[in-house]
Design a protein that fits this description.
The protein has 2 domains: 3-207, Spore Coat Polysaccharide Biosynthesis Protein SpsA, Chain A; 212-308, no CATH class. Helices cover 47% and strands 17% of the residues. The protein is built from 12 helices and 9 strands. Strands 1, 2, 3, 4, 5, 6, 7, 8 and 9 form a 9-stranded mixed β-sheet that branches. α2 links the parallel β2 (33-39) and β3 (59-63). The longest helix has 29 residues, at 280-308. It is globular and about 60 Å long. The termini are far apart.
Length: 309
Amino acid sequence: MDISVVIPTYNRKETLELVLASMVSQTFSRDRFEVIVADSNSSDGTDLVVSRFQSEMGLRYLRQENRGRSGARNLGIRSAGGRIVLFTDADIIADPHLLEEHWNAHQEYGRGAVVGWEVRVQSEDELAQARQDPEARVALHPPGRKLLSWLYFLTGNASAPRNDLISVGLFDEAFQQYGWEDIELGYRLAKAGVAIRYNPLALNYHFHPQTLEERCSVAVDAGRSAVRFWRKHRDWRIRWLLGMNPFSTAFFSMFSPKGTFLRALRSRLQLASCDRGGPFLVRSLRELLIQYHYSTGVRGALRELIKEE
């Protein structure tokens, strides 16, 4: 087996069905890859969705108690029969060439990890447009970039040799809140000498609409996870790059959660769409509010850390 695709899931049967359908249409030969759905004890009929695809491709359904995304991915890695493990999620729809492009990159570069282009979309119309029109896709990296920092090991579209994942200790299952568990693994891979390459031809589409309130709530969790990341490694680069530097914390400390500015900002943005569109000012204010909540999570976790130490 060349590639094992690991898809963690928890109560995402609607989008998981789209993801599995996109795996059926891969240009990579079906006898060279398997798909592992690692289910964290879903209760929405995920098992019935998976069963409909099992006769169409090499698909294995693994189920365990909910140990978070890290625990589900680790279950998939341990069970994988492929030399390369490719990570995606239950709401990320693959381009037909996704597996082929990951494999080609591994053959070209030798040992290392590969990160593809994860295109974020917020609606079915946006998904259709991004699939048909390359100009509609928002890129995180310039197309000519070859090497990436560990900061961009995002497991919505990333692959690595199974042996390297095992040798660095898999995902850290202590990361139970949202965020940074994949970047932290990327950090350990880079420290172990595993280069992280970028292949923009390895495309998939992240279809996960969120309300503003959901994004703000997730941002608080991500801030707390960032502190866990830094606490584990105590690398000053982590603290600086993940928004725990004194400039960021001092700036957001100026705002009171019940103050006039934040209340007015939230009220204004609730009237606007939460997708990537809208005027530049609206997009900027939206990101400012989300970053405030991220900083709230960071500052709260840092205060707890100081009390413990």
